[in-house]
Design goal:
There is one protein chain. By secondary structure, the chain is of the alpha/beta class. The chain has one domain: 3-Layer(aba) Sandwich (Rossmann fold), CATH 3.40.50.150. The protein is 44% helix and 15% strand. A 7-stranded mixed sheet has the order 3-2-1-4-5-7-6, sandwiched between helices. β6 and β7 form a beta hairpin. The longest helix has 15 residues. The relative contact order is 0.14. The model has no long low-confidence stretch (mean pLDDT 91).
């Protein structure tokens, strides 16, 4: 697809998503969008953790534009919860989520599962093109989401973890331990704070050295957040220095697609 069309589609998707309450900014959304459109056309796209629908709306707009099928949203929308942190006295994020879909015109492109991922997983049998994990950021939560749904990735499918370079144990540990150090994944990296990897069961060994170099840098962050501890003081300063040493650029969708196509050749 032409890069001009990609750029216009991503800008249009962000214009819909930007007004929705949530925790993803414009630059980070463009990184997410680049990953999303670079995954195979076949299969479904799964989002674990939707909150009030910011990334859901953006991804659904892109999916509608490029005919990539519905976004499967999985979130219990319960409160209080680490996945729904700023609800005040509201009992749930679900009304806001539905309102965002209706107001953005994306409701018809989202398949809603108002449930925990562990409750959806037992009956799941659909191949996944893109897996966006943005739910419970504890290690147990992120690990469970990954273990339950990553086995359904199509060859060439992409898994992405939000807040990998933020102060949460779950995303960084799963990224290092289950993606970078897995023999099942090929190209991998960080875009903004999103950790991602492409499922390549046939030729993943080609990328082992690249993934290990990145793992050696990223694993230094894990002791600072182990056990869910708060990063403050000197640890906070060290965290920032370590993050700065880890490559995490913003690539355009065209640049990312070129990178993945080169790896496949």
């Amino acid at each position: 697809m032409p890069s001009t069309d990609l750029d216009r589609a991503i800008d249009a998707a962000w214009s819909k998503a930007s007004a929705v309450p949530g925790y993803i900014g414009g630059r980070e959304f463009r990184a997410l969008a680049a990953l999303f459109v670079s995954a195979p056309k076949q299969g479904v796209s799964v989002e674990i953790g939707s909150f009030k629908g910011k990334s859901t709306v953006g991804l659904a707009a892109l999916s509608a534009h490029f005919s990539l099928g519905p976004i499967v949203s999985i979130d219990p929308h319960s409160a209080p919860s680490v996945t729904d942190p700023d609800l005040g006295e509201q009992p749930s994020s679900f009304p806001g989520f539905l309102a965002a879909l209706e107001q953005s015109g994306t409701r018809g492109h989202v398949e809603i599962h108002r449930a925990a991922s562990r409750d959806v997983a037992p009956g799941w049998n659909r191949p996944i093109r893109f897996l966006w994990i943005d739910g419970d950021h504890t290690y147990a939560g992120a690990k469970s989401d990954f273990d339950l749904f990553a086995p359904h990735l199509l060859p060439g499918g992409i898994v992405a973890l939000h807040d990998t370079l933020h102060e949460f144990e779950g995303p960084i540990r799963v990224f290092v331990e289950d993606m970078l150090r897995s023999p099942r994944f090929g190209p991998a990296g960080l875009l903004h704070s999103i950790g991602w990897a492409q499922y390549c069961p046939r030729n993943a060994a080609r990328f082992r050295d690249q993934r290990e170099r990145l793992a050696r840098r990223a694993q230094k962050l894990i002791p600072l957040v182990a056990g869910g501890r708060r990063v403050a003081g000197l640890a906070k300063y060290r965290w920032k220095l370590l993050c700065a040493a880890i490559p995490h650029p913003i690539l355009s969708a065209a640049e990312l697609q070129h990178l993945l196509a080169r790896h496949e050749s």
